[in-house]
Automatic annotation (TrEMBL):
<protein>
    <recommendedName>
        <fullName>Aminoglycoside phosphotransferase domain-containing protein</fullName>
    </recommendedName>
</protein>
<dbReference type="Pfam" id="PF07264">
    <property type="entry name" value="EI24"/>
</dbReference>
<keyword id="KW-0472">Membrane</keyword>
<dbReference type="GO" id="GO:0005628">
    <property type="term" value="C:prospore membrane"/>
</dbReference>
<keyword id="KW-0812">Transmembrane</keyword>
<keyword id="KW-1133">Transmembrane helix</keyword>
<dbReference type="GO" id="GO:0005811">
    <property type="term" value="C:lipid droplet"/>
</dbReference>
<dbReference type="InterPro" id="IPR059112">
    <property type="entry name" value="CysZ/EI24"/>
</dbReference>
<dbReference type="GO" id="GO:0005619">
    <property type="term" value="C:ascospore wall"/>
</dbReference>
<dbReference type="InterPro" id="IPR011009">
    <property type="entry name" value="Kinase-like_dom_sf"/>
</dbReference>
<feature type="transmembrane region" description="Helical">
    <location>
        <begin position="166"/>
        <end position="190"/>
    </location>
</feature>
<feature type="transmembrane region" description="Helical">
    <location>
        <begin position="53"/>
        <end position="70"/>
    </location>
</feature>
<dbReference type="InterPro" id="IPR052786">
    <property type="entry name" value="Spore_wall_assembly"/>
</dbReference>
Amino acid sequence: MDDKAKKALIEEAKHAQEVAQDVALSGAYIYPFKGIIYFAYHKDLWRPLLSQLGRISTLGLSVTGTMFFFTYVPQVAIMSFTSGPFAPISAALLILSESSTITNFLSRSFLLEEALTDTFDGTLVARGHESLVAEGRQIKPKAGRDAIARLGKMVKRPLAQLKPQALLHTLILLPLNFIPVVGTALYAYAQGKKLGPVAHTRYFQLKGWGEKQKDAWVEKNRGAYTGLGIASFILEMIPFASIAFSFTNTVGAALWAADLEAARRFLYNEDIRLRERYVEFDSSALLREAGQHIGPSHGPPAFIRKLAEGGFNRVFLLTMDDGFEAIIKVPYQISGPKHYATASEAATLQYLHSKGIPVPRIYGYSSRDDNPAGVEYIVMEKAPGVS
């Protein structure tokens, strides 16, 4: 072996060692297994899977039967050169893996796009990230509903169909599994590196990230996404259970996204800052109060979603039944005496509006918390921004 070849092998081995270390340190590979546990204990997340179970089973049986009928004998003949007397068993296992891969590909491409998106969004809602999910779909008021029942009309559909080239690439590499240990490891690594970032396609869209920002984030966290992809792919390789693991893997990816969001915290005196911003109120009652202030001309309130928090108020976007929108502001403790802060802001805006100054119109407000919602609030016009 010449020096160039030795140098190339040493560099490749060093790179593989670095990747393995990044994967191990990231801990992201544990999320697919967390997804299994979380999915098992949250039965509302089962509904998207159960709604597609009949169609998936029919597709899986059709694909597996077709593969055995047309490819079993040829693959036994090929495997006889490598597996000898065990060729029939090896070929059967290979066909099961191939069938599982094809079924997974076809299901994701044509059957499961909406179901997997519902599962991802439902998990985020269950973890308390309604405002993030609201960037991609409407969110219904809680009012006794579970996470899946709160998912409204979808605005963005991010789970693009997988490309046929991806399926071909996967099937070509599949025989690597019959190289003991090393072959399976190489196969899982090649697929995991590619599929890890795909698991967060929905998350990237909800965040509003473009290609450059997404690519920079993935590259910065390459080890974590590779670990997530490897663990997810290994689970989805299991015949007859691959589709179920597609859903638990989606839950796991959403749990990681939820943890990433939760990590965005105040850097100084975090506990104090969070207590200052804690506001307890009845959201359903607040919805009804706001609807009464706006009046019946727009129909009943449909839903509210949380917007970015300001320094002194929690802000919500209210949508009425006909699509009309308004803003609800709920003050924090740090805004001063909330009665005076709310009353003075509402009075000031009403006065300016009466003089023809272009400020948001006040539909109604309560400067005391002795109302059904149990909190001070202002319901005002949604004013378009100017850039």
